[in-house]
Design brief:
About 70% of the residues lie in helices and about 0% in strands. The protein has ten helices and no strands. It starts with 7 loop residues before the first helix and ends in a 6-residue tail after the last helix.
Length: about 170
């Protein structure tokens, strides 16, 4: 809770503790520490057992959020992309996708379109949220072009999101 970077070296070995609660608490603490704890967290993400994977992935997202807050967009985007690709629970992958969009505003449209076309309801909901947030008429036009490629019920949801943009390009 104190976010003491010097504690990262003491906590890192606990990521592989046999007791899942200890390993999970270490991951959560390292996530709060942020960027100084990034190396052990990313190493643990690759081999974390299933019960611990969500906590480690969430801690990595906290580090990515810290990188983004520091203006290190490329580093944050790379870490969010690892979270998107990780074999973790859907909520963590969805949060990582949102972070990836925020980290690269200029390249966000392909990610949003990918989510619109997803079979996972959580990803579609994320896309509809992001459609309302993306700036610019070009984004509106590109997203509106997707209408014809979507099923009717998704078209309705996307139309509502486009209407919420209050952008003349949506008309």
């Amino acid at each position: 809770n104190r976010r003491d970077a010097r504690s990262a070296a003491e906590l890192a070995p606990r990521l592989s503790d046999a007791a899942a609660q200890v390993a999970g608490a270490a991951a959560a603490a390292l996530g709060k520490i942020g960027v100084p704890a990034l190396a052990p967290l990313t190493a643990a993400l690759a081999g974390a057992p299933a019960p611990l994977r969500a906590v480690v992935a969430d801690a990595c997202l906290l580090c990515a959020d810290a990188l983004l807050a520091q203006g290190k967009r490329d580093d944050a985007a790379a870490l969010y992309d690892r979270g998107r690709a990780a074999d973790g629970p859907a909520p963590v992958r969805i949060a990582a996708t949102r972070g990836a969009v925020l980290a690269r505003p200029a390249g966000a449209l392909p990610l949003v379109v990918e989510q619109l076309q997803s079979r996972e309801p959580g990803r579609v909901a994320l896309a509809l949220f992001l459609v309302r947030e993306l700036p610019g008429g070009e984004a509106t036009k590109r997203i509106a072009d997707e209408l014809a490629r979507l099923a009717a019920e998704r078209q309705l949801l996307l139309l509502a999101a486009l209407a919420d943009r209050r952008d003349a390009a949506a008309v």
